[in-house]
Amino acid sequence: MSYRAAKQGWVRVCSLADIVPDTGVCALVHGEQVAVFRIGQRDLYAIDNFDPIASAAVLSRGLIGSLGERIVVASPIHKQHFDLRTGECIEVPEHSVRAWSVRLGDEDQVLIR
């Protein structure tokens, strides 16, 4: 990771190759669990890993799909859908989660802020 990226608050969490396409992984960023998803070859999304409806840190293990134009993850417990771009819970918006900034850095390192 470059000095500039670190100075701007980006945290390296893994290599792109560590995430199988169309799945998610969990990363610890500043003491918080973040679900990081790789869609296709290089598209990345990140939301809180904690499912507020199930009260469990499981979103990184959910199934990825789409609802209309939205790319979503379905919670593995109660199957609510969370928009990977915004963190919005489609069925129960008051239980939405935070979306994190994510990008690829030098040498295909996944960076979260």
In whole angstroms, the N-to-C terminal distance is: 13 Å
Count of discrete alpha- or pi-helical segments spanning 4 or more residues: 1
Please trace the helix and strand order, writing H or E for each element.
HEEEEEEEEEEE
Mean pLDDT value: 94
Structural class: mainly beta
Main β-sheet: number of strands, strand sense, barrel status?
3 strands, antiparallel
**Shape field:** globular
Strand content: 35-45%
Cα Rg: 14 Å
In the predicted model, the low-confidence regions spanning at least 5 consecutive residues are none
Walk across the major sheet and give the strand order.
1-11-10
DSSP E strands, number = 11
Give your account of this protein's structure:
The protein is globular and about 35 Å long. The protein contains one helix and eleven strands; from the N terminus they run αβββββββββββ. The strands form four sheets. A three-stranded antiparallel β-sheet has the order 1-11-10, with no helix packed on it. Strands 2-3-4 form a three-stranded antiparallel β-sheet, with no helix packed on it. The protein has a three-stranded antiparallel β-sheet with strand order 7-8-9, with no helix packed on it. The protein has one helix at residues 3-7, and strands at residues 11-15, 23-29, 32-39, 43-48, 50-51, 56-57, 63-67, 70-74, 81-83, 102-104, 109-112. It is mainly β.
